Amino acid sequence: MMTEQELKQMQALKDEVASLRSELNSLRGFVKALYSMMDEDEQYDGPEGLADGVDFRGINT
Predict the structure, then answer these.
(1) 0.85 exceeded by the pTM?
(2) Distance from C-alpha of 40 to C-alpha of 14, rounded to nearest angstrom
(3) 53 to each of 36, 40, 49, 57, 60, how far by Cα in Å?
(4) What is the 3 state secondary structure string of 25-40?
(5) 35 close to 46: Cβ distance less than 8 angstroms
(6) How would DSSP label each residue in the chain?
(7) Quick one: which of 39, 17, 20 has its CA closest to 28?
(8) How far is CA 2 from CA 6, 11, 12, 15, 45, in A?
(9) Each residue of 20-41: pLDDT tens digit?
């Protein structure tokens, strides 16, 4: 069984992960907007890995 302090640390980590996921989604949108502004006349998909539905959870940084 986890102690109260461990439970608090675990919740803090879960909150941080949720915050980072939200920030990552915002950054993805920002990068996509930058690519669309680079050349509005042509369709540009950006680098591989920025497409919708890509799962980054397994990537270590």
Answers:
(1) no
(2) 39
(3) 18, 23, 9, 12, 18
(4) HHHHHHHHHHHHHHCC
(5) yes
(6) ---HHHHHHHHHHHHHHHHHHHHHHHHHHHHHHHHHHH-SSS----STT-STT---TT---
(7) 20
(8) 6, 12, 14, 18, 46
(9) 999 999 999 999 888 888 866 5
Report how far residue 55's alpha carbon sits from residue 50's, in angstroms, rounded to the nearest whole number: 10
Compute the mean pLDDT over every residue in the chain, rounded to the nearest whole number. Answer: 80
In which residue are the tokens 């950006």 written?
A: 46
Q: Retrieve residue 51's tokens.
A: 């497409």
CA distance 49 to 60: 15
Chain length of the chain: 61
